[in-house]
Design a protein that fits this description.
Layout: H1 5-35, H2 41-47, H3 50-68, H4 77-99, H5 103-130, H6 137-165, H7 169-188, H8 204-228, H9 233-263, H10 267-295, H11 297-320, H12 332-360, H13 368-396, H14 402-417, E1 424-427, E2 433-436
Antiparallel strand pairs: 1-2
Helix pairs in contact: 1-5, 1-6, 1-7, 3-5, 3-8, 3-13, 4-5, 4-7, 5-13, 6-10, 6-12, 9-10, 9-13, 9-14, 10-11, 10-12, 11-12, 11-14
InterPro entries: MFS, MFS_dom, MFS_trans_sf
Keywords: Membrane, Transmembrane, Transmembrane helix
Domain Major facilitator superfamily (MFS) profile: 7-424
Length: 440
């Protein structure tokens, strides 16, 4: 199949829709749990890890399952067609469940919504390398991340307007956009011919049975590739992914609290600072993919981690110096944080955009879904570890430890990246970009 950037942009609508759902979910579900059902922050935090638990338990299985699937429309699209409409319907029902003030009904709605989101998330992610040659995957992943960032920004800015009108409107809007976006992917983006088997019937029961029997065996084999291989590149990059997501998730979870309780400014201003980080990430996602193709993925990721560490050190020094006089966005200290975070978002884009292509380029075409699942297994495992681990440091020492905590894990991730020797691309003189399985 001929590679076209236009197809990648359309595929990006799948990530656009998914990002809208998660941005709205993370913004408003904690409010519902605390205001309507009067749950503690600890219980609320545990409930908010349901999506990560599903990701850790199901994404490797579902990635492998989609690898094995063959239908008239391909191996990824059946999961999109089943998962996206179901998740959209349940997401739209969340404010209805809240209206009845029945915790069991509300929990059932969000648990099943999380399940159906997990059902098609890994196949959507694996769709990109299916239709993208190795040397274009960093650029393609940059486009995908740009579209995801655009969806999150639409949720944050548009969601506030809709929420002020009626708390249910963002959920109806998000459900409709996510459904339409993923249907666009199904209708417009073709899967490779070898995965489309016209006229061949499949037994869903047999497929599930075989996958259930062997998928965790495949996960075991993939993890064996990680830990038992003489060549440690896969272990090194997955360890780096685990470490940098611990760092990032700790900031994402606690930075607004740091802003309020340590810097002495409103939490909304702290959230706006993170929004600047996200905006910068979105704007730089596509250039980061091209930089990865030009400099090499490992070098680009390492440079991105160095940038993030540098801006966090700068932010720590600013926070330890003069405190903001107000929560105004024009306050010099607040403006300094926003300037640093804008640069930090660029560094984070260099890291995030180039990491998945490295992982999937360490395996064969038949195991793309399984290795995509490995990527999300390690990243979501980090998201389970980060909040309680960072919270323990904050409880014992205080909020001033938040930035140093993240800095340490970003540095450890940069060290781990230096042991990666596969999954990169280099430019040879007089030739196009060639895949290089071993970087010496």
């Amino acid at each position: 199949m001929e590679f076209k950037y236009s197809r990648i942009f359309i595929l990006g609508f799948g990530f656009f829709g998914i990002s809208i759902i998660w941005a709205l979910y993370n913004a408003y579900i904690p409010i519902f749990l605390q205001d309507t059902f009067h749950l503690s922050k600890t219980v609320t935090g545990f409930i908010m890890t349901i999506d990560n638990l599903f990701a850790v338990l199901l994404l490797p299985f579902l990635g492998a399952l989609s690898d094995m699937t063959r239908t008239r429309i391909g191996r990824r699209k059946p999961y999109i067609l089943l998962g996206a409409p179901s998740a959209a319907l349940l997401f739209a029902l969340i404010p209805v469940a809240r209206m009845y003030e029945n915790l069991a009904l509300f929990m059932g709605t969000i648990i099943f919504m999380n399940f159906f989101m997990a059902l098609f998330r890994s196949p959507v992610v694996a769709f990109m390398p299916d239709i993208t040659p190795s040397e274009k995957r960093s650029q393609a992943n940059g486009i995908i991340n740009f579209m995801g960032g655009l969806g999150a920004l639409l949720a944050y800015f548009g969601g506030k307007v809709l929420y002020d009108m009626n708390y249910a409107y963002p959920f109806y809007f998000g459900a409709a956009v996510m459904l339409l976006a993923n249907l666009l992917v199904v209708l417009v983006v073709p899967e490779p011919e070898e995965y489309r088997v016209p006229g061949k019937k499949i037994s869903i029961r047999k497929l599930l049975s075989e996958t259930s029997h062997k998928s965790f065996g495949e996960l075991k084999e993939n993890l064996k590739d990680v830990f038992a291989s003489h060549e440690r590149s896969l272990l090194a990059i997955l360890l780096a992914i685990f470490l940098w997501f611990i760092a990032f998730n700790s900031l994402e979870t606690f930075f607004t609290s740091y802003a309020k309780y340590y810097l002495g400014i409103e939490e909304s201003t702290g959230a706006f600072m993170l929004g600047v980080f996200s905006l910068s990430f979105m704007l730089f996602a596509i250039p980061a993919g091209f930089i990865g193709a030009r400099l090499g993925r490992r070098r680009t990721i390492t440079l991105g981690l160095v940038i993030v560490v540098a801006i966090l050190i700068g932010a720590y020094l600013v926070g330890e110096g003069t405190k903001p006089e107000s929560s105004s966005l024009s306050d010099p200290v607040v403006m300094t944080f926003m300037g640093l975070f804008f640069v930090g978002g660029m560094g984070w884009a260099m890291v995030n955009v180039n990491s998945l292509p490295m992982v999937v380029d360490m395996t064969t075409e038949e195991k793309l879904g399984g290795y995509t699942g490995l990527y999300y297994f390690f990243s979501q495992a980090a998201n389970l570890v980060a909040p309680p681990l960072a919270g323990a440091f904050l409880d014992v020492i205080g909020y001033r430890t938040l930035l140093p905590f993240a800095i340490v894990f970003f540095i450890l991730a940069a060290i781990a990246m230096q042991f990666v020797r596969r999954g990169d691309i280099v430019r040879r003189k007089g030739t196009a970009l060639d895949y290089v399985p071993d970087m010496d």
